[in-house]
TrEMBL record:
Residue ranges that the Swiss-Prot or TrEMBL entry lists as coiled coil: 657-684
PANTHER family: INTEGRAL MEMBRANE PROTEIN, INTEGRAL MEMBRANE PROTEIN-RELATED
Keyword Coiled coil on entry: yes
Organism expressing this protein natively: Lachnobacterium bovis DSM 14045
The name this protein goes by in its record: Uncharacterized membrane protein YfhO
Length: 883
């Protein structure tokens, strides 16, 4: 092993490749060990890679191959700007390889990209270490060892805690890989007046993922100031150090280059950033406010323990950072402080910046600032890779000055670490999960300390000992990645429904022709199945979704949250308004009077909803303003909504009560008439026990249930002891559709958490349903066409509608800037229906309608992006000619 490394070390051009391939083979070895396809049936789809990125990659490939609009997609929930989704999730230039990659191996494409990006991070980090620390300028024997250190630390960066925790987050990895090149670019600006590397790497990083680039840009300000001062004050004290290259650069030139090319790098991506910001203003994150007071998440020792080997990665909402950077870094930080050869003026800024990071991980205000004026929803400390890189720079500085490290410094450092471990053992005596990581971390620190002492003591075979330490270090990095990273799931299970759903979508497309319709299903793989299987739906999970839709859903009893909304909980009127025409289920029940079974493909039954409105439907003018959804229950909200949007429904019978318990008391005590209610309180009998609620049907019909909030995920429905279905994500508080039930049947609602749950039951008033549907469908919008073709085009919807009086036409499309409407060749103003959907006012008579979407300001910002690239190239070429 030593001879192999030594032979490569003598050829400097091979060292970047060595760093690349060590990381590459470590990752591949772990994937093989974990039986990842094609070495087994596992795949690394995990968290958002499972629920979001794979469906997005699938949709993006479809867009590229079939020349669909890059500006808008109806497969993204109820519809959203696709360019914004591209900017947030898909902008890596490497993703364009999807055009030639087989569709059935997209998972392997993503796996390949993840490994390649992590490996390039190692290669680029090596380049940085060599240039930043001027290794190539050395002429002594230390040069060869410093190259070896650079390889090891580059691999350590590529396998740090950030990657162990977030390797699945493929959209962040471009910026992670490019980070060291960006810093190298700053060094080149300061030392040689060469901005090309800085501009190119920063522009690519911002283009690939503007969000992680925000954190990088914050750090770049600190780094630039620090390096400019060091280069000016420390590096060129001696006239002998001044070369032709250093003559090119002055502090003023460096500041100008840094400012100009930072702006050019940002404006290069303006076509993506502006489209993204336009959509994000409708997202939940737009409501983030600056923290009113400072709070602390955890102690310094707790944070320090996050640098341990084998510690389970943290991705939840308690802010714990993933700081592993190799156990040796813990020891070498202390040795860095003790090393007298390293100038104090170099130590102070680095330790200060490291301290800022430690405080930032724990303090809410700094956490908010680092994450782009936004608190991250889970996945904490997303800037931790910058901290790890800073630590590795400190380790490199210590290693290159290791001859000044005394044995007593090693022993003193070991004692300090031992004291911290003893305190942590005492504080976490009952936490068995932490014991193994602490023990193995302590063991490795002891090994490194012994090796350091032996190297300092012995005068022969030091080279062998250094290579032995190298092997131990690389093995440690591999062990950590193997223990805590690359979580897997069954590939076969994930793709099990693909063939059947492709057949279903193909069948329905032939059945409907060019008509617009949406599909929903009872058992979905993800909330982005529409993109996974290429159809339009009413469900979405995304960080850029329109939160107004989620709020609207929640008011009407559907599932919704800060970054998702779902068809679960939809009642027939709401379903019809959302143009959900088809419903897929593995349950072949024919009793539902609102649906008709039309076909079976595989184990899946296709149902047609009997009450489906087109993408646009009419309501009385101002009906949404009359609707009061505040301080009432979901059921009251639905009944009120139905009465307000249907003109024939004049009688309103609201309970006015704020919770379902009061509603039941109201019905039981006063027995108010429910003749005009869509959902009527049902007096079916309940028997509530821990883990099971029994409902005896004494009032048959289509039954719905609401419940007080309960913290469980799943609920199983049985009818007369026969399993019917499983309700998932029950803690999200949506209306449960119990189906059509007959007199005397018993429904059993069971949960594995042994919770006592009280349900409030309601029967569907089918006469009211038909009456409401007929009212909304009386003046039917006739869709002529939806044009979604053209990669660089928007979306155009045309249709006509004849009204007997002035009406408002509501489209089941979320309101956002970019939509324009023309009626009878006259531009009309688009307004919001209950702050959520598009609506326009129509006059009596024949109306020819044209609705168009174009990403706001796209033409202007596209010119800005192109102009920035041209300007950067011209400035760089002029500089090269001058110098």
């Amino acid at each position: 092993m030593g001879k192999f490394l030594k032979s490569l070390n003598k050829t400097s051009k091979k060292n970047p490749c060595l760093a690349f391939f060590i990381t590459f083979f470590v990752c591949v070895a772990i994937l093989i060990y974990k039986n990842v396809y094609p070495f087994g049936d596992r795949c690394i789809l995990h968290i958002d890679l499972y629920h979001q990125y794979y469906p997005y990659f699938s949709e993006f490939q479809d867009v590229l191959r079939n020349n669909k609009s890059m500006q808008f997609s109806f497969n993204n929930g109820l519809g959203n700007d696709f360019l914004a989704l591209f900017a947030y999730y898909l902008a890596s230039p490497l993703n364009l390889l999807l055009t030639i990659w087989p569709h059935k191996y997209i998972i392997e494409f993503m796996t390949f990209l993840i490994v390649i990006k992590i490996s390039f991070a190692s290669m680029f980090a090596y380049k940085f270490f060599i240039y930043h620390f001027k290794v190539e300028e050395k002429t002594n024997n230390k040069k060869e060892f410093e190259k070896l250190y650079a390889v090891c630390l580059a691999v350590a960066y590529s396998l740090c805690g950030f990657i162990a925790a977030y390797s699945w987050n493929i959209m962040w990895l471009d910026s992670f890989a490019l980070f060291s090149l960006i810093l190298l670019g700053i060094d080149k600006i300061i030392r040689e007046n060469k901005p090309a590397c800085y501009y190119t790497s920063l522009a690519l990083s911002i283009w690939a993922n503007y969000y992680i680039s925000i954190m990088i840009c914050i750090f770049l300000v600190f780094y630039f100031i620090c390096m400019l001062i060091e280069n000016t004050v420390l590096e060129i004290k001696d006239i002998n150090q001044i070369t032709e290259k250093t003559k090119r650069s002055t502090p003023i030139k460096s500041v100008i280059n840094f400012a100009v090319f930072s702006l050019l790098a940002a404006s290069t991506s303006s076509v993506l950033i502006v489209s993204e910001l336009n959509v994000l203003k409708y997202a939940y994150s737009a409501n983030s406010g600056f923290p009113k007071k400072s709070t602390w998440y955890f102690s310094f020792l707790t944070e320090l323990s996050r640098m341990s080997l084998g510690l389970k990665v943290y991705i939840d909402d308690n802010h714990l950072p993933n700081l592993y950077t190799g156990v040796a870094s813990i020891l070498f930080i202390l040795l860095y402080l003790f090393n007298k050869k390293i100038k104090i003026v170099k130590k102070v800024p680095r330790i200060m910046i490291m301290g800022i990071f430690f405080i930032s991980f724990s303090n809410n205000i700094l956490d908010f600032i680092w994450h782009g004026l936004h608190f991250p929803s889970f996945l904490p400390a997303r800037q931790s890779f910058i901290f790890s890189f800073l630590i590795l720079c400190i380790v490199f500085e210590t290693l290159r000055n290791i001859e000044e490290t005394r044995i007593k410094d090693v022993l003193c450092s070991l004692m300090i670490i031992a004291a911290v471990f003893i305190i942590q053992f005492k504080n976490n005596a009952n936490n068995t999960e932490l014991m193994f990581p602490f023990l193995i971390t302590g063991g490795y620190i002891l090994i490194y300390s012994i090796l350091l002492i032996v190297i300092k003591k012995v005068k022969i075979r030091k080279t062998f000992l250094i290579y032995l330490a190298t092997f131990v270090f690389l093995s440690e990095l591999t062990v950590n990645m193997g223990l805590v990273s690359f979580e897997t799931t069954s590939r076969r299970e994930y793709l099990a429904k693909s063939d059947d759903y492709n057949k279903i979508v193909e069948y329905l497309n032939k059945r409907e022709g060019k008509k617009f319709y949406r599909i929903e299903q009872s058992e979905r793989k993800t909330k982005n199945d529409a993109m996974l299987y290429n159809y339009s739906s009413a469900t979405e999970f995304s960080s850029i979704l329109n939160y107004n839709v989620s709020g609207f859903y929640q008011k009407l009893g559907l599932e919704g949250g800060i970054n998702y909304y779902s068809y679960y909980g939809a009642t027939p009127v709401i379903s019809s308004m959302l143009s959900v025409k088809y419903y897929i289920s593995t349950d072949g029940d024919d009793t539902d009077t609102t649906k008709k079974k039309i076909k079976k493909i595989g184990p899946n039954y296709i149902y047609e909803n009997l009450y489906t409105l087109p993408i646009g439907f009419t309501v009385p003018i101002g009906s949404d303003k009359k609707w009061n959804e505040k301080d009432v229950t979901k059921i009251d909200t639905i009944n009120s909504f139905v009465n307000d949007i249907a003109p024939e429904n004049k009688t309103k019978n609201k309970t006015g009560y704020k919770n379902d318990t009061q509603i039941i008391q109201n019905y039981e005590n006063k027995m108010q008439s429910q003749e005009n209610e869509l959902l009527q309180f049902s007096s079916n009998l309940l028997n509530i026990r821990p883990g099971q609620t029994t409902i005896k049907i004494i009032r048959p019909g289509h039954l719905y249930a609401v419940y007080d909030h309960v913290d469980i995920d799943y609920l199983d429905e049985y009818v007369d002891e026969k399993f019917k279905k499983t309700f998932s994500s029950v803690s999200n508080d949506y209306i449960l559709d119990l189906g059509d039930r007959k007199l005397g049947e018993k429904i059993y609602l069971k949960n594995d958490s042994n919770k006592k749950i009280k349900f409030y039951l309601y029967n569907l008033n089918e006469n009211k349903m038909k009456e409401t549907y007929n009212s909304l469908n009386n003046e039917r919008f006739e869709l002529n066409s939806i044009n979604k073709k053209g990669l660089f085009n928007g979306v155009t919807i045309t249709g006509k509608l004849k009204t007997k009086s002035s009406k408002e036409l509501v489209f089941s499309i979320p309101y956002q800037e970019g939509w324009k409407c023309v009626v009878n060749d006259k531009k009309v103003k688009i307004k919001k229906f209950k702050g959520t959907f598009l609506k326009i006012r129509l006059n009596k008579g024949e109306n020819n309608i044209k609705l168009e979407y174009e990403t706001p300001y796209i033409r202007i910002v596209l010119v800005c992006s192109i102009a920035s690239i041209i300007a950067a190239i011209l400035i760089i070429r002029i500089k090269r000619k001058i110098y």
